[in-house]
Design goal:
The chain is built from five helices and no strands. The chain has helices at residues 9-26, 28-50, 55-76, 82-109, 116-141.
């Protein structure tokens, strides 16, 4: 519609609602990105520190591929939802902190041959590391 079409106020509100729904719908990809990366985080740490060869190598290559794909996705996004824009900075910061904490736990605290209690602790640390992304995915996917 053009500005010269002589829209009524009801038509203008209808058009605004349509565009708003389109923007929210387009952000679903970002929501799924957050969820997928969060779930990959939960699998990544146990694979890296509990898996036998070649599992850690496959996990590392998979993580690099996920990073490249997600970077391309964020650059190519055409529509920017205000909620995603508002969440992205704080979620990224929280994710970096939780990933560094998971790394520190795995490298400096966890024994080389972990007992079942240590394995459970590693799974908990992996879930905590993924929580910022899972929260962001939930917020974006439930935004109506």
């Amino acid at each position: 519609m053009n500005a010269g079409d002589g829209m009524s106020p009801d038509q203008a509100l209808s058009e605004i609602d349509r565009v708003d729904r389109r923007v929210r719908h387009s952000s679903r990809g970002a929501g799924w990105y957050f969820v997928i990366t969060g779930l990959a985080t939960i699998a990544y740490w146990p694979a890296m520190f509990l898996g036998d060869d070649p599992v850690p190598d496959v996990a590392a290559v998979g993580w690099v591929v996920l990073t490249v794909v997600s970077t391309v996705y964020w650059v190519r996004r055409r529509v920017h939802n205000p909620l995603v824009r508002r969440l992205n900075g704080p979620i990224t910061g929280a994710y970096v902190v939780t990933m560094l904490a998971a790394f520190a736990f795995c490298v400096f605290v966890m024994p080389e041959r972990p007992a079942p209690g240590w394995v459970a602790a590693l799974v908990i640390v992996s879930v905590v590391a993924a929580l910022p992304l899972l929260y962001a995915g939930w917020r974006v996917l439930t935004d109506r």
